[in-house]
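Hi there,

I know you've been waiting on this one. I reran it after we fixed the sequence typo, so this is the corrected version. Both the input and the resulting structure follow.
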Amino acid sequence: MTFIKFLTTERIKRSEFLLSDQKANVIDIAYDSGFSSKSWFYTFYYQKDCSGKQYVIL
């Protein structure tokens, strides 16, 4: 596993944990998790076949 892959995986884990709080703002979570923009954040969630907002609803 490359460092970038590891880092991305850890960022997604962190964001999933933070998204479990229904009161949290998705964009704030993206930045708090280490993503540099909302575009990067959504790109990785689209790879998982759901967006950050959809994850919150699930």
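Quick highlight: The two ends are 29 Å apart (CA to CA).

Best,
R. S.
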